[in-house]
Write a structure and sequence with these properties.
The chain is an alpha+beta fold. It has a domain at about 30-70 and about 90-165: NADH Oxidase (3-Layer(aba) Sandwich), CATH 3.40.109. The chain contains seven helices and four strands. Strands 1-2-4-3 form a four-stranded antiparallel beta sheet. Helix 3 (about 55-70) packs antiparallel against helix 4 (about 75-85) and helix 3 crosses helix 6 (about 135-140). The longest helix has 18 residues, at about 55-70. The N and C termini lie far apart (about 35 Å).
Length: about 190
């Protein structure tokens, strides 16, 4: 797939088929992520793959409780509260796989390095006709001792990018983009 096609065509997918994503496609996505640029070539990341439906449901429920307890006020707070309070809302959208990219040690640019790896993973998934979505609702809980324990992560790890992966049930429509603000010097 052409790079511009991937960049302009990738969308956050929130509706998935029940088809599983096999080991080889997931290994390919993780390899693409591991080729992301990173500060001083530290490669400070670890990848946790969750395909166990019961664990995904438990992580979803715990993440919703954590998010509701820690939800800051803001323009979307009421909508988020309603969504997170819905017992039928599964924050991973019933995707068959979750890949959590975690920073393996403290560092000034670890979050940025993991975010770059996440973008590579999501673009590679789009090139393989797979859908992805970064699940921000899960980040807070996954970074608690209980969340790390549920994923078998050492206390020193910092979950940065919980990315769901699966076969899209429908093609997400493009969302309008704001005109970028540009400041030119020279």
């Amino acid at each position: 797939m052409d790079l511009n096609t991937a960049i302009y065509g990738r969308r956050s997918t929130r509706s998935y088929t029940t088809d599983t994503v096999g080991d080889e496609p997931i290994k390919h996505l993780i390899d693409a992520a591991a080729h992301a640029p990173n500060a001083s070539n530290e490669q400070p990341w670890m990848f946790t793959v969750v395909r166990d439906r019961d664990l995904l449901d438990r992580l979803s429920a715990a993440s919703k409780v954590h998010m509701l307890a820690n939800l800051p006020e803001g323009p979307n707070a009421a909508r988020y509260r309603a969504e997170l309070s819905d017992p039928d809302f599964q924050i991973f959208y019933d995707a068959p796989a979750l890949i959590v990219i975690s920073g393996t040690r403290p560092g000034r640019w670890v979050a940025e390095d993991c975010a770059l790896a996440a973008e590579n993973l999501m673009l590679a998934a789009h090139g393989m006709a797979l859908g992805t979505c970064w699940i921000g609702f899960a980040q807070g809980y996954l970074n608690t001792p209980e969340g790390k324990d549920a994923l078998g992560l050492p206390a020193s790890c910092v979950p940065v990018a919980p990315i769901i992966v699966g076969h899209p049930a429908a093609t997400p429509t493009p969302r309008p983009r704001k005109e970028p603000e540009i400041h030119w010097f020279g």
